[in-house]
Amino acid sequence: MKLPVALCSLLLVGCASYDVLTPSPSTVTDDSDGTLLVRQPRVAASSSFSEPIHTLGFEWFARDPGLVYLDAGAHFGARTGGIIGLSFNADGEAFRADQPNPSTKRDPETHTESSRFSVTFDQFQKIASARIVRMRFDGLGENTMSSFGPGTGPRAYVTAKFAPFLEQVSAARLKR
Asked: How does strand 112-120 pair with strand 133-139?
């Protein structure tokens, strides 16, 4: 009886600390022009197993401080057939991300497709501070939606990545 209880406890501790194992934001220097950029690699952005598998990462460049670039991804199972749009509803305020380059990258190893979008820094702060964010992928095949934020389930690891990302952006702004 002690062994199953110990294994369950270990499993719960492992799940609780998974956020620590996901990539965190980092500040790096862009090799092409020497400007600072803050980058958060894609992490899970779906709050429950009943939602499609979506991921979200973001980048901020000191040379373009008014925008945040989003790296949005979906599992092939979401059947988007190419990502052609990304929109958000952050605590009731809806807006659409811009897609400067309408191409979708497909990765057969991870069974994902991703595309790059941008939002204004103000829109990004609304996403980061919202209690509930609904993120909608528009695809050629179908549209899928996921949710994240403190008012949703624990599986959306992206929720915990906003504060450290914004802290690093603030520090990078001071270095400019």
From this structure: unpaired
Rg (CA), the chain: 17
Domain range spanning residue 150? 23-175
Task: State how far the Cα of 90 lies from the Cα of 122, in Å rounded to an integer.
Answer: 12
Helix (H) or strand (E) holding 85: strand 83-90
pLDDT at 80: 53
Q: Which tens digits make up the pLDDT trace of 66-105?
A: 999 999 998 866 555 678 899 999 999 999 999 987 777 8
User: What value does the mean pLDDT of the chain take?
Assistant: 85
* DSSP state for residue 98 in the 8-state scheme: B
Q: What is the pTM of this model?
A: 0.84
Within-domain flag for 4: no
Cβ contact 86:69 at 8 Å: no
Q: What is the identity of the amino acid at 89?
A: N
The residues near 91 (Cβ < 8 Å, ≥ 6 apart) are 126, 130, 131, 132, 133
Token pair belonging to 159: 């929720």
| CA–CA distance, 120 with 30 (Å, rounded to integer) | 21
Classify residue 8: in a domain, yes or no.
Answer: no
> What is the tally of structural domains in the chain?
1
